[in-house]
Amino acid sequence: MIGNLPAEPASFVGRAEERERVAGLLGRTRLVTLTGAAGVGKSRLALRVAADAHRRFPDGVWLVELSSLRNPRGLAPLVSETLGGPDDSGAREMGALAEHIGGKRMLLVLDTCEHLLSACADLVGELLERCPWLRVLTTGREPLDAPGEHVVTVLPLGDDAVTLFADRAVATVPDFVVDGTNRDQVVRLCEDLDGVPLAIELAATRLRALSVTDITARLPDRFRLLRRADCDTGESRHRTLRTAIGWSHELCEPRERLLWARLSVFSHGFDRETAEDVCAGDTLSRRDVFALLARLVEKSVLLREGDRYRLLHAVRAYGAERLRELGEEEATRRRHRDAYLRLARRAEAEWAGPAQAAWARRMTEELPNFLAALDHSLAEDPRAAVELAGTLWPLWIACGHHREGRRYLDRALAATDRPTPHRVKALWAAAWVDARHFDVRRARTRMEECRRGPGTAVWGKHAEALVAFAAGDDENAVLGFEEVLAARGRPGPVWLLGQSPACVLSQAGLSLARSGGERARAVLDDAMWRSALTGDCWSRAVAHQGLAVLGWENGDLVGAEEQNRESIRLSRELGDLAGALVGFEIQAWIAAATGRGGLAATLLGAVDGLGGAAGIRLDEAPYWGARHSTCADIARGLVGGPAFRTAVADGAALDLDAAYRRALGDPPKEGAGLTPRESQVAELIADGLSNRELAERLMIAERTADTHVENILAKLRMSSRVQIAAWVAVRRSARR
């Protein structure tokens, strides 16, 4: 190979798509720039692409490393020296370099251009204009902004991060392998390191003295941990993570550094408007923040993801150090807390309206920031923590974040016992979260304290109804929900801020549906109409679920499945985990009753697995638990014990997305999967035999032949005539 590319110090891992893309660009264009954050692997990618392309450049592939060059005037002489050109340091140095290159077919790689942007842009512009066969590949933390430049942003590694860690770990600990015993810890470590190759490689060197778990535990002090002070190779800017990021900091202007420091209070990501709320002040106006965000993106300090921005963990940690040095940490964190309290109030006020799905997505996106605001409030202002924790009830209850809600509501309520309306709402929210976990004891404790609060009868009554529902006491639950509805319009405190009558109606209708009464249909239809009118899709999901339960109790399996699928779809859109688990449970019942034993077993396993991880045990809850057990008996009878256990285990291993896909998949045709003996039983049912007559026939069959009688009897234990109707539907469908 002609040129001066160095030998790779270690194997190159991943980046197949990026390599192909950059190589393609070099074949079509003459100037390509790789940009990206500190340590993300721009230089390694450029060198790998250059090495791959060397056959296309008969006059060589030449690397010019610029990190140690500080004077822009030395750029052309350094390039000329690298290419073996004339030593001309006069006014015509760039022209002499262009004459030296002339018509040669070569690739010039300029590595680390960010501190010499103007000089590099001028040099590259003139060389490309005068040297028709020259190609240039540059790397830097921002583009050159030169004519004809094609920019490729190098992002952190995804799945290849684990492969890189494993590869570099072997160099440190030869017998290290990533296997079932440590894969989860390695994945978590790579995620905490943002998939940044430099950080991953530095972490791998620590395996000489630390385990993967120990390294992860020490990441809060990542700059002390991730350094290579004992390494004699490589540029000094890459010996530690701190110096790599510090290099970016040096290249920022003072106001850019100030914004970087203030942005460090955000957790994970943020949008422009909130950044302006939090970071504007003193020497930075809102307009300044808007403009400087773009500059930090260009300099690869910030990542832009759609309409949101994000600092990598290490970049944020570096900014946090600077913020403390500036003495602005407390003031900035207070502005951050206030901004997210305002956002939570807006979300609550608009929750029951047409923007509900958008708010569900927004609140979930902002969860890390809400938690950071709560942590700050718990330390500095517990009353604000109580208000924020209670105001976030849609996030805790309807968007699937039950565990976080439980933890922060408990912490906020324990931090201050001052009786205020905000505390009452937080107690109500805590009772509701506990009720969704079917933890009746905890829910009742919160409910009783809520009812003793000042001027809050409606909150306490709603909490009481929720606890009754969780306890399986549908009669008192319905009475409670009706009292809550009757209180609407009475003078006094704002009625269940953020909720609509459709929400309470759907809860009352679901309670009525569990006993199969026809009154449930009128209530649920009313809830459906009201929720559709206002855009309250969460209440509509509960109403659909209620209609599914009603259909199930009355033997209308086709209608129940249709209603249940719609409820599951809405739960998926909102992220409502508790609602989804109930939907999976109902879908399992319907699957078992229509002969789909494998699907029923898989969904039961998903309910157990996902519910157990979230602390929600439907199999132990009143109403749901008994039917869960009966459904398991029927599914086991349909597919046999070993196949049932396998399907349950497969379901328990599903993630939430996969469980949604199974629950919403196209069902097989009715009647499919019946054994001959099961078809015979269905025939007897269709002929109108009573349960007793059917049992007598089965007993006779059991004495005269080796049949699947036990499996069939298991099906009949589900709950009397509802399942009989299911078998009739199956058999009549088969007849047609």
Folded structure, characterized:
- Pfam families: AAA_22, GerE, HTH_77.
- This is LuxR C-terminal-related transcriptional regulator.
- With 736 residues, the chain is mostly helical.
- Among the domains are: 16-153, Rossmann fold, CATH 3.40.50; 160-242; 511-664, no CATH class; 676-735, no CATH class.
- Helices cover 64% and strands 5% of the residues.
- The protein is built from 38 helices and eight strands.
- It has a five-stranded parallel sheet with strand order 2-3-4-1-5, sandwiched between helices. Strands 6-8-7 form a three-stranded antiparallel sheet.
How much of the sequence lies in strands comes to under 5%
As a percent range, the share of helical residues equals: 55-70%
Q: For the largest sheet, list the strands in their spatial order.
A: 2-3-4-1-5
Categorize the overall geometry. elongated
Oligomer: single chain
Average pLDDT works out at 86
Write the layout of secondary structure elements.
Blueprint (H helix, E strand, L loop, with lengths): L15 H13 L2 E5 L6 H11 L8 E5 L9 H9 L9 H9 L5 E5 L5 H14 L4 E6 L8 E5 L6 H13 L10 H10 L4 H9 L6 H6 L4 H4 L15 H10 L3 H10 L6 E2 H8 L6 H13 L4 E3 L2 E3 L2 H14 L2 H22 L5 H10 L1 H14 L1 H10 L1 H5 L4 H14 L5 H16 L3 H12 L5 H14 L3 H14 L13 H13 L5 H16 L2 H17 L3 H18 L2 H17 L3 H18 L9 H16 L1 H12 L3 H9 L11 H11 L4 H14 L4 H8 L4 H15 L1
Parallel strand pairs: 1-4, 1-5, 2-3, 3-4
Antiparallel strand pairs: 6-8, 7-8
Helix pairs in contact: 1-2, 3-4, 4-5, 6-8, 12-14, 12-15, 13-14, 13-16, 16-18, 16-19, 18-19, 19-21, 19-22, 21-22, 22-23, 22-24, 23-24, 24-25, 25-26, 26-27, 26-28, 27-28, 28-29, 28-30, 29-30, 30-31, 30-32, 31-32, 31-33, 31-34, 32-33, 32-37, 35-38
